[in-house]
Amino acid sequence: MLKIAWSEIFAHSLPEGHRFPMAKYDLLPEQLLYEGTITKDNLFAPEPLQEQYILDTHDATYWQRLRDLELSPSEIRKTGFPLSEQLVQREVVIMNGTLQASLFALEFGIGMNIAGGTHHAFTDRGEGFCLLNDIAIAANHLLKYKGIKKVLVVDLDVHQGNGTAQIFRNEPRVFTFSMHGGHNYPFHKEQSDLDVPLAEGTDDKTYLKLLGEHLPRLLDEQEPGFVFFQSGVDVLATDKLGKLGMSIAGCKERDRMVLEACARHRIPVTVSMGGGYSKQIAHIVEAHANTFRLAQQLFF
């Protein structure tokens, strides 16, 4: 059964002025339920993640200062959110959503989080609406406690996964692959194991050709026992921040390529939604919904 992390806290703990496009966290499950892609049995509400698992990835001093709301004004500005107890609680729930989805993936082949993809969080700081790094926390959990030997991170958000790259810079068991806008945030990029920068306006044909060149080769060369897929839909031409030229159909084909490859190789995969900032919320929800539709079609 497809298991999907979702909680009301994903959208309702955010400060005023930050709730669009975060409304997608409510609208997306509503759409999937309405059309019959999922039932309520597919959804699970994660509890806050235990502190010990946060500390397997993040610096203890940073976590303590974040938890106790002691970050400096400069540090807070870099995260993009006003710091609050509710915001930290939201982040900790999202972290466990991806971790639990990973455990479901070990059982069912795939697990998903309606939130997550917080790839701008570093070991010791937050940036870009990311306080903690859910992909890194879940990957480290699988490596340390579940016997996974090699993890491949496939980060296809329009923004480079700089935090994930930094966290795993010296970890040979995790291969980080980021395909992103070359002239987009973050303007100082970290070095992933493989970075594929894209020109502004990159269209479906060019994007999918590049992905088709790199992904099969990485799966063959790295032989991962687990894949984390950051499936941000800010690659759309309609995205206010993305600067690429992809259609919703092209974004769906991107997701199909990743999920089909994982299913074909029988590699468990966890999907985190990542970014999406189109002016029309319907474009964001539809593009994200395609990822869940494909998961049901390809794995169940």
Describe the structure.
α10 links the parallel β7 (226-230) and β8. This protein has a single domain (3-299), classed as Histone deacetylase domain (Arginase, Chain A). An eight-stranded parallel beta sheet has the order 2-1-3-8-7-4-5-6, sandwiched between helices. The chain has helices at residues 9-12, 24-35, 51-55, 60-67, 73-79, 85-108, 134-145, 162-167, 204-222, 248-265, 281-299, and strands spanning 3-5, 43-44, 110-113, 151-155, 174-181, 194-198, 226-230, 269-272. The mean pLDDT is 96. Helix content is 45%, strand content 12%. With 300 residues, it is of the alpha/beta class. It is built from eleven helices and eight strands. α6 crosses α7 (134-145) and α9 runs parallel beside α10. GO terms for molecular function: histone deacetylase activity; hydrolase activity. Pfam families: Hist_deacetyl.
Mean pLDDT over the residues:
96
Regions with pLDDT < 50 over 5+ consecutive residues? none
What's the tally of helices? 11
Structural class: alpha/beta
Q: Distance between termini?
A: 7 Å
Strand order of the largest sheet: 2-1-3-8-7-4-5-6
CATH topology: Arginase, Chain A
Structural shape: globular
Number of domains: 1
Written as H for each helix and E for each strand, in order along the chain, the element string is: EHHEHHHHEHEHEEHEHEH
**CATH architecture annotation:** 3-Layer(aba) Sandwich
Write out the CATH superfamily name: Histone deacetylase domain
Major β-sheet profile: 8 strands, parallel
Count the E strands.
8
Query: Based on the structure, what is the oligomeric state of the protein chains?
Result: single chain
What is the helix fraction of residues, given as a range? 40-55%
Instruction: Determine Rg (CA atoms, Å).
Output: 17 Å
User: Class, according to the CATH hierarchy?
Assistant: Alpha Beta
Strand content: 5-15%
